[in-house]
Amino acid sequence: MMNEEVLEQSSASVEGSAAVEPAQIKVSVHADALPETIVKGDTFEYRVNVTWEASAGRNALLVVPTSSANTKGVTQIGLREEHSQVVHNGKSVSNTQFVYKLLADDSGNVSIPALHFQIPSAEGAVEVQTDIVSFRIEEPSDTVQFLILGVCVFGIVLGALLVVLQKKRSSEAKKKAVKQEDAELAEEFLLLKKRIAKADSRAWLLDLEKICKSWAMMRYGSDNLEELAKAGTLEGFDSLLEEFAHARYGGGERDAFQNKETWKTAAKLLNIEEDE
């Protein structure tokens, strides 16, 4: 993949100074080899080198790309230049490398067209070009596809497993919290029994009502005992609610036996075992 052009120019055309003996500048262009395997979806580089040789000290040539590498199955997505120069035995060898960044967007046999470059000079522009480069773009292998699919499936399964474990941990934590609250409520309820004979009846009933409200909030998310009873959620609470209302609005005296019977009724409704 190499083409050569020989430019016969005066030093004035190259350096912009007074004319002296003609100078011969030899220009060559070639492309580096492509990757051995290119698969659809790959991004790869196609490197084209424009090299020229002249007497040391002469100005560098300006090399201008005038075409693109776009073709069926290949899209040019970038282009950059890299420059180098070596001086040896009074000769200057300069190189401009054009690096085409290409995307393989289809499979099958593909040909990158001849790429054209223009070198302006006082005698007129000189054009050089690469050869046409043919190669094949492969379809992604089944192994790669299955590997990608396997990774996706594994990710989905792992995600689902993490969600299940998180829900399980959350459920266990919630059960533990409810169990702790039940234990604290039961302890408070059993302590209330010990105050039956000593506490003021009205204050005792109101404390029992607070415990029942806490229990309802834990179970049903509401501490409005009257509304829960009307909705049929609290079965058997009617007599207990009447006593709470009686205590709130200032009823008469009650003896310890009555309070003990009320406590037993509440213990049964709240499913709390008596501490005998």
Number of strands: 11
User: Biggest β-sheet: count, sense, barrel?
Assistant: 5 strands, antiparallel
Count structural domains: 2
Based on secondary structure, the structural category is alpha+beta
- Please report the number of helical segments: 6
Radius of gyration: 46 Å
Transmembrane segments: 144-165
Keywords: Membrane, Transmembrane, Transmembrane helix
Fold and architecture overview:
This protein is of the alpha+beta class and 276 residues long. It has two domains: 2-140, Immunoglobulin-like, CATH 2.60.40; 180-269, no CATH class. It has six helices and eleven strands. It has helices at 11-15, 142-193, 201-220, 225-230, 238-248, 256-269, and strands at 2-9, 23-31, 38-39, 43-55, 64-65, 74-88, 91-104, 108-112, 116-119, 126-129, 133-138. It has a five-stranded antiparallel sheet with strand order 1-2-4-7-6. Strands 3-11-8 form a three-stranded mixed sheet, with no helix packed on it. Helix 2 (142-193) packs antiparallel against helix 3, helix 3 crosses helix 5 (238-248) and helix 3 runs parallel beside helix 6. The protein is rod-shaped and about 125 Å long. Residues 4-23 have low confidence and may be disordered.
Essential attributes:
alpha+beta, Immunoglobulin-like, three-stranded mixed sheet, 39% helix, BatD, membrane, transmembrane helix, transmembrane
